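Run log, item B.
One chain of 419 residues. Sequence copied directly from the ordering sheet:
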Amino acid sequence: MDRSSFEMDSTAIYAHSNGYAYARVDGACVTHHSTILTDVPAGFSVDHLNWQKMDNRRANLRIATASEQISNRTERADKKPPPPELTELGIHRLPRCMRWDVGEGKFVVDPMGAMGTQISGTKSTKVSIVNRFRDCLEKMIAASQEDDEVTRTRVQLAHEYNELVRAAHVIFPEIFPDGPYADLESMCGELAYCQACMKKLPPPTKTDSIAIVKATQNENKFILFDSAFVDAVANLPTCDVSGTSPIMVATRALRERYPGIVSEADVAAKKKILLKDIVWSSFLGHPRKPDDATIVPLNYQQYDLRAENLLLLPGTSKEHKSPEGIPVIPEGLGISMRFWPRGVSLATAAGTTQSKKSPWVLFVRVRGAKRSSFSCSATTVDTVLQEKVFPLLRMAADDFDTVNATYQRLLAEYQSVTS
């Protein structure tokens, strides 16, 4: 308190409760700060600018409206930390009034100050947690209205409070503990903190590619090409996108356009020509695919026909089946990567023969070897992945880590374009 307040009230005995200092005055239990600012109109309250309830200096107290007090409130003590995907980027606390709604899978900003309505980020599972945070952060920055003077005053008062607490401990350590201290980093304006968080995020995924959209009865199909082939893509004949991979029927016109790919026998049989075979030979200039080989997308996505994504592997197409959809790793498992590595899948279906402690199964398929399986659970799946699955994949391919990084990036790029 200020010296003047102490001299006026030196005989009062205060007790600490719920963070505040209380005393009994005329038979009533009152807070210390209410004895300093006594003329508080109805509908208003006393607000501690630096969020320290025991700092009852007059400069730290103001008569505030409910909106001003909400805008200046500190974080809830039970506020949950950010998801691990953000802490790995150095973001160890969410902006004040922002929270991670685990059930909805989205970030939410509760009403505060000038923002009278709740702000919600996207909850699309096609968007990574980092980009869901980015989405909510951008909306919060657009809605924020910072009072720079209040921010500067709050930081200065918090610094003074820390110096007083530290000095009291140094002089009388047996009476005054070393803290708690005000968190000066959290005292900065929310707009500044949001902007600092934004700088820690990786830039949005960009890819030097183009996509054409083909409508089917039930959905739109996106076919991804390298942007260098924009002219060739613009002149592509009509293709069928009703199946798992885009195809064209061998016609006389198709043979005339792609004579090195479509043969007379193909035209006579009205053979289905895979669009990726045309891209491989005509766009990329590779020799025609041998009959005993298959062009395989590294990221499993048969509609992603970028050069970096296409591999020529021995074997028939049946030996290189792609799983349906995008193999996204479920949230909340603490796994640093976004997608299951190539050849890895997780079975969590009820009714398995696994024990209650390990009800899940990680399946690993390595070319030329039998499928392996590893029991795990939500709490052990990351450990099993690190200690058993990755060593197996590295043993099968020395360049696993490099290829997996490319695979993860290509999948993320494809998902960002098509979502």
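Observations after the first pass:
- The chain has four domains: 3-74+147-188, 84-146, 208-318, 338-399.
- Residues 208-318 form one domain.
Flagged for discussion on Thursday.
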